[in-house]
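Annotated sample (chain length 200).
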Amino acid sequence: MTKFTRTLLASAAAGAAFLLPAQAEVVSYQAEPTHSYVRATYTHLGLSHQGLEFPAISGTFDIDLDDPEASVIDVTIDMLSLDTNTGGEEFYTHLSSSDFFNFEEFATAHFVATELSVSEEDNTKGTMTGDLTIHGVTQPVTFDVTLNFQGDHPMMGVPALGVSASGEILRSDFGVGAYTPYVSDEVELNIQIELIVPAE
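Output written by the structure step:
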């Protein structure tokens, strides 16, 4: 093979590589525990909006922002981390009983994303559909998602994402329908999560 032929083949190979789409990059994140939670908001007797928070979030967050469908999101929520805000120990005990969440039998909730899409108008917004399991019952749910931040964490200096998500469920669909309609069946889920790549 002549030097000219080798040079020509090398140039062709380089050109072909340039034309190929870049390989998707999946980044593995974890939830930053002090700034991540799920908040469930409901109406109480038509008098007020009340909320419960579940701050213990863990799982797999393998994210590809360029190709969301390549992402893997598999989340576990520790139900025992429930913060009733104003309800105190007695309210916590009631919610943990078989009247509601039955923590003794169902100590975790679980969500697995099955579809992610990004808005064509704004690439920081999109939807996430998946299977949500609460109280041993699995139902499909769709969240509206906003990417608040992408870059190095301002304090930790590691790659980070800031994400907000919201959606609505009927608690009766999950077998937790006690006291409806005095306590609303409709529950708004609001998720605030900071994802970081752990420092090596």
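Annotation: The helical segments are 3-19, 88-96.
Annotation: The chain has one domain: 25-196.
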